[in-house]
Structures are given as C-alpha cells and as structure tokens.
Write a structure and sequence with these properties.
Length: 253
C-alpha cells in the first residue's frame, strides 16, 4: 500500500485538485487484487478506471446468492466491481452520471475465455439481453474463469483519467500520468507477477510506456481500444487475439 500512496501523491502533482480521493484508489485496488490469479499468465494493461465521486463511493453492493461472501462490497467505477453497470445491485442507484459500466471491457473478458465470432455470442453478459440474476451469475462465472486461466487486468494509472460527460485531460497529461503510474507502482506489480504475456489495450498505453516495457523482457502485444473506430471484422479479429493468447499460454503450462 505504500507504493499506492506514493503513486497517488505523485499523480496529485500532475492532476491537481481534479483528482479523485485516495479512498477511491484504495477501493479500486481492493477489487483488482481480489481477482488476481494465483499464477498470473497474461496481464491486460489498460489506461485507468472511470472517475468515481465520494458520494458514489458510499454505495454498497447487495451481493446476490451466487457471489462469494468475501467479494468486496464497495462501489467503484471499475470493471471488476460487480455493481458497476448494475444499478439493481446497489443499495442506492446512481442516476447521474449514469451507471452504464464498461460493456466493451466485459467483451474483452468474455473473449479471453470464449471464441466470440458474432455479437450474439456476448448475450450472456449483455444488459439488455439477459435477466439480471442470470447475467450476474454469468459475469461471476467469467471472472472466476479469468482468474483460473491466469488473466489479470491492471490499470496503468491508479487515478481516473476519464469523467463521464467531460473531455479527457490533454494527451501530454495522460501520458505523464501513465508514466508516473508505471514508475511508482504498476511497473513493480507487473514485474512481480511475471506474466508470460502483456497485452496493452490501446496504442496510447503502449506509446507512453514503450521504453519501459522494452526493459522488462516480457512479450508485449498491442491491441486497439475496444471503443476504437474499427470495422466489426477488425474488432472480432482483436477479440480472437485475446482468445488465442489465453489458449496458448495455458497449453504451454
């Protein structure tokens, strides 16, 4: 936790008063580390979670019977948080900004385990296509499979770089934040995990860290952001790449 606090302090110098509270960062870490595989084989390296207010942080997740009893119950706008995108699970729903979640990252998660070839393949985790109880059970099953298969999502910047409805910080600010996140925390976490493969989600993450990633001697693959303006065929090519890497590293073990 010392490196988290040091990293947060450094990010405060970059982002100033617009940064989230340190309690948000601690909450995100709680969810992230709950789903860490015992043996990390593939790290999905993303940019950051989504800005979470202190009022939102006060929400509590009402865990369904299918959830592990020790699952973190506090809300944060992070894909690992079961209440993100699932207002019905919260003790008080969030209306503004809307609690939409990040369905595009759930597609990545799904594709790590399943060879998705059409949009209908994502129905089990799609909000408008399944009943809540069934969908939550499917999401939990998927998270367990990701952990068993050694897949772990890390955000390079511990503080949110995106607030719904507002523009992102400048490119140079985002790049600095990614480098600070690597230098003061995530770089050490990733190297200690010693995965067989790192997949950078988005060229921006890779370009900000290219020199640093080149020094760790772990193979790095760059795939586009899931919201990138690509054709359907290109998106499914990326989804297939996730599946291929997870299959390959688990065959080799």
């Amino acid at each position: 936790m010392d490196s988290v606090l040091e990293c947060y302090s450094r990010l405060c110098d970059v982002l100033g008063p617009s940064i989230e509270s340190v309690d948000v960062i601690k909450r995100a870490e709680e969810h992230r580390w709950y789903w860490r595989p015992s043996q990390v084989k593939i790290v999905l390296l993303a940019e950051s979670h989504v800005y979470t207010t202190d009022d939102e942080l006060a929400r509590e997740i009402r865990l369904p019977p299918s959830a592990p009893s020790n699952l973190p119950r506090g809300f944060v706008r992070l894909v690992y948080c079961l209440g993100y995108g699932e207002n019905s699970l919260l003790d008080r729903p969030i209306s503004s900004p809307r609690n939409n979640g990040t369905p595009q990252f759930w597609k990545i998660f799904y594709s790590c385990i399943n060879n998705a070839t059409t949009n209908t393949d994502f129905i089990p985790i799609h909000v408008s296509a399944t009943l809540t109880t069934e969908r939550i059970a499917n999401k939990l099953s998927l998270l367990h499979q990701l952990r068993e298969q050694g897949v772990w999502l890390l955000d390079t910047c511990l503080a949110a770089l995106y607030l719904p409805g507002r523009p992102k910080p400048s490119h140079s600010t985002r790049e600095t934040c990614l480098q600070v996140g690597w230098d003061y925390h995530i770089g050490n976490v990733l190297q200690a995990a010693n995965p067989q493969q790192v997949i950078c989600i988005g060229k921006g993450v890779f370009h900000a860290l290219e020199d640093r990633l080149g020094k760790i001697r772990i193979p790095v693959k760059v795939l586009p952001q899931p919201q990138a303006r690509l054709s359907s065929a290109e998106h499914f090519q990326s989804f297939g790449t996730y599946y291929h890497f997870v299959q390959e590293v688990n065959k080799s073990m």
